[in-house]
Amino acid sequence: MDDFEPTRATLAAIAARHGSPAETVRPTHSGVANRAYLLGDDLVLRIPRTERFLADLAKEAAVIPAARRLGVRTPDVVTFDDTCTEVDVPYMVLERVRGADLERLDLPADRAEQVYRQVGRELARLHRLPADAGLSAVPRDGSPGDPRVLVDRLRADGWIDADAARWLTGWFDALSPYVPAEPPMVLVHGDIAPQNLLAAERGAVLTGIVDWGDAQWADPAIEFAKTPLGAVPAMLDGYSQEAGEGTSVRSWEGRVLWVHLVWALGRLADPVPKPGERHWTAPPASRLLGLLRFFASDPPSPWADLVRAAPPAPRSASGEAGLG
Prior knowledge:
Blueprint: H1 8-17, E1 25-27, E2 34-39, E3 43-48, H2 54-69, E4 77-81, E5 91-95, E6 100-101, H3 102-105, H4 109-126, H5 147-156, H6 162-175, E7 186-188, E8 197-199, E9 206-209, E10 216-218, H7 232-243, H8 251-268, H9 286-295, H10 303-308
Helix pairs in contact: 4-7, 5-6, 5-8, 8-9
């Protein structure tokens, strides 16, 4: 069965196994990979949409308990069943965390920053997980390669002009000292985006991090790549408070900016819109516009220094900055 579409009878059977009457089952906010339902007021049921998403749900069943043992705020797994013996779909039941996701809350900037600082502290706890923690089935992120090769390809394919290619290459050259040749591999959540961060509707309090289907062993800088860049300084502040790492040397900021820039250019090379998806990077131009917006908003030190590290914009033959 490739499409895990639950029937009303299936939903009622799962609810009954967890002490919830059938009439308490109701849809809630679903994602790309899973359908989600509330079972009463205290449980959340998740069912993968298709067979290809089942592996991610199984991964969550292994990763979430490990994260909780480190004190990370994430809902506990009540049941994971991929046998399809008692009901005709694989599924996971989790404890329900009160609150709404940050995308829906649309908090004022100062309160959102408070939540993102708390997120940073949670990530620092997660990244302490030792490599021998028994999560051998969690994949390891491969090396993305040199982004300057991507710049050359974008120029050759006509997505950017020669002056922009030289400028981008120079910016990567300036950022490269901040990027370790062999970064440490830590367990990352892999999708720290507003829709996966739950907060109390009153007060700027993080109540839970959800959706661990993209978890992997990776460079910790990647953890900050799916968060809008404007929220990253607060996250790094919380991260350094918990981890005891200073951020004044620009190492972390340079590494995170490198990833954001690489992923923005990668999205430019794959400009297919994804209407209806809630993720902020679904529109093809969102990452590039996010970079522009961040650096046009007078970012705190040392971020402004990182953009000043890029070479000057190319100038036209008349001596004026080229305007196209």
